[in-house]
Amino acid sequence: MKGYDGVWVFAEQEDGKLADVGLELLTKGRELAGVLNTKLSAVLLGQRVKELAKTLIAHGADEVLLAEDERLADYLAAPYTRVITDAVRARKPAIMIFGASTIGRDLAPRVASTLLCGLTADCTDLKIGDFTDNIEKKTYKNLLYQIRPAFGGNIIATIVNPTGWPQMATVREGVMKMGKPDASRKGTVKKLEVVLDLADLVAKVIKKERVQKSVDLKGAQIIVSGGAGVGSRENFKLVWDLARTLGAAVGASRAAVDGGYIDHDHQVGQTGTTVRPRLYIACGISGAIQHRAGMSEAGKIIAINSDPSAPIFKISHYGIVGDLNDIIPRFIEIYRKKGPG
Amino acid sequence: MGFDCIVLAKQVPDTANITGQAMKEDGTVNRAALPAIFNPEDLNALELALEIAEKHGGSVTLITMGLPQAGELLRQGLYRGSNRAILLTDRRFARADTLATSYTLAQAIRTIGRFDLVLCGRQAIDGDTAQVGPQTAEKLGVPQITYVEKIESLGGGKVVARRSIGKGYEMMEAPLPCLMTVVGTANEPREPRAKLLMKFKNARCPSEVTERVRAELTPKDGTADEAAVKTEADRRIRELAKKNLVIEEWKVEDIKADLSRVGGEGSPTKVKEIEFVVIKGAQTRMVEPTDEGMGELLRELIGDHTLG
Predict the structure, then answer these.
(1) Alpha-carbon Rg of chain A, whole angstroms?
(2) Start-end ranges of CATH 3.40.50.620 in chain B?
(3) Between residues B1 and A247, which one has the greater pLDDT?
(4) Candidate from B170, B274, B282 with C-beta closest to A155
(5) Distance between CA A258 and CA A302 in Å, rounded?
(6) Of A36, A35, A52, which is closest to residue A44 (Cα–Cα)?
(7) Which residue of A152, A166, A225, A331 lies most exposed, with the fewest beta carbons within 10 A?
(8) Dmax over Cα atoms in chain A, in whole Å?
């Protein structure tokens, strides 16, 4: 659209620490900006967060748009929306991407609604391409393709936003790969004006309670995961045992979590965690697309399932058809005999 | 005291059962061809509203934007205790993305008038965007509290709610009126009450009646006489009205909506293309579930340092 230019990434931060998803999106943003031959800007709001700009530039930002104010210390929808929409109206970026975190999902829709622009949630890929509107008989060039699964994962949809700019999208953590930072990269820091009314400040955060996650799936190199086929919370012991034997983390499909076999911290998939371990062992997991979306990039995938037609076998490197109640204990036995130490 | 709560709900297609005939040329789903259910987290929102009404007094108004068949969702709300139910139905509302949907819902809420709380589920199981809640809040110019699991206190012109946000919890306070999106772990939605079910099972929206009459009067290979359809439909609606069983139905004009902002017209996002997911067969090596087979596999994995 005329007058709009630039790719923006919301650099989410909390308590002075940058969220991984923002850095992952800068890597992707760098790529999109390259295709469009335009500038990549990171948008950073907070209080005393200026020194984070270095990291954002190292991860690909040409410019950091910085809004520092004590009223922005903690994320709140109204003041953050106000500052961002003021900046968008003044500078007119073509594209703005947010992480689909709790903050991103609270903020991005409010920004899009204020600006009357289009927003696509949970994109699994972003590309630049053309679009021909057959009804209007118009062709638009260099639009952002916002790609995401929909309708229970049965389809992949490509969404475009030809005229409701900026084109906005959210992307979940772990979907885009974080590039290596380059400390030698140069960039500028521009201060954004912070203009807030009393009306923007009526809601407040009274208390925050951080709960330590019981498992770090993102960093795990080996994961043993259980699905609906495991059958019960009691039977999930087999998964725990195999994981312990191999020094692995324990994962689960949504079906297992919904069934109460294990808690949500262990969920792998589109609405859980995206993982890239060296080895992923899927036990009694059918392989629905939302699960595959969370683990398909594992180095090696072994699937154990009694159903030879389970979709998981189509993406696994090794498949064992059989009863996991028989296979897992034997696998453990063999590993103990053959394995190192 | 009492609080006037408005609950936004969506009837969603059962996304586990989509087949080819449910997908249209333009990339949108033919919702009428799928079994439809009350979006789960909207049921949690309704439950929260009903609990507020039970504890503090006040009213619960349930609104949905959808096809005439969404009348069933409204009946489900009436069976559970909603005081009022409104269907927003109009061909012109169709193909709306979240921006157009939130505009339509906000206009309907403005038409209802005063409210203390708007409650809706965090997200719908078909779109999974979680956008309509915050966007409706923005359009109404009210604060939003998303991911609400519990209301800690309500009164004195404000609400304090506990949010469940993945890595922990947060207590947020906002003045009324405000909008809250509710998560599935907030409560166990109640079942329909037998008495209310008996009372409202024959409640219908005018469009539901018209569709039913049209279906009955359509000859095997032809179209129904619209004048006859209207006469009979009006007659049945009058009968229902006598028993207070007509569910309110609003169109574009009833909510004074700007035509350019509803439905496909008001949707900046467009579907460029849809691809059915087809899993391609990969080079999977099937391993025999025997000691030899698994032993060989382990040797390989240890050999290439996949396993330490």
Answers:
(1) 23
(2) 3-205+247-266
(3) A247
(4) B274
(5) 23
(6) A52
(7) A152
(8) 69
Q: In angstroms, what separates the C-alpha of A283 from chain B's closest C-alpha? A: 13
This model of the complex carries an ipTM of: 0.88
Decide: B140 and B118 in contact? Cβ < 8 Å. Answer: yes
CA neighbor of A269 nearest in space, from A179, A335, A173, A338: A173
pTM given for the model? 0.86
Taking alpha carbons only, the member of A314, A250, A308 closest to residue A287 is A314
- pLDDT (tens digit per residue) in A36-57: 999 999 999 999 999 999 999 9
Contact A230, A238 (CB under 8 A): yes
Partner residues linked to A273 by β-bridges: A268
pLDDT in tens, A82-104: 999 999 999 999 999 999 999 99
Residue A107's SS3 state is helix
Q: List C-alpha distances in Å: B22 to A150, B26, B65.
A: 14, 12, 20
From B143, B294, B306, residue closest to A334, measured CB to CB: B294
Q: How far apart are CA A111 and CA B121, in angstroms?
A: 20
Reading the block at residue A34, the tokens are 């390259």
Q: Stretch A251-279: mean pLDDT, rounded?
A: 90
Nearest-by-CA chain A residue for B169? A209
Q: Which of B115, B133, B117 is nearest to B52 (CA)?
A: B117
User: How far is Cα A90 from Cα A187, in angstroms, rounded to an integer?
Assistant: 20
Tens of pLDDT, residues B271-281: 999 887 765 55
Spatial CB neighbours of A125, under 8 Å, sequence gap ≥ 6:
A145, A147
- Helices (runs of H) and strands (runs of E) counted in chain A: 9, 18
In whole angstroms, what is the distance from residue A273 CA to residue A287 CA? 15
Which CATH number fits the domain B3-205+247-266, given the four candidates 3.40.50.620, 1.10.3720.10, 3.30.450.40, 3.90.1010.10?
A: 3.40.50.620
Q: Which CATH class is domain A222-338?
A: alpha beta
Contacts 24+ apart (CB under 8 A), B53-56: B53/B2, B53/B3, B53/B5, B53/B81, B53/B83, B56/B1, B56/B2, B56/B3, B56/B154, B56/B155
Please tell me the distance from the alpha carbon of residue A324 to that of residue A229, in angstroms, as a whole number. Answer: 8
Residue B132 contacts by C-beta under 8 Å, 6 or more apart in sequence? A109, B8, B98, B101, B102, B105, B120, B124
Question: Mutate which of A111, A267, A318 to test chain B, going by most B C-beta atoms within 10 A?
Answer: A318
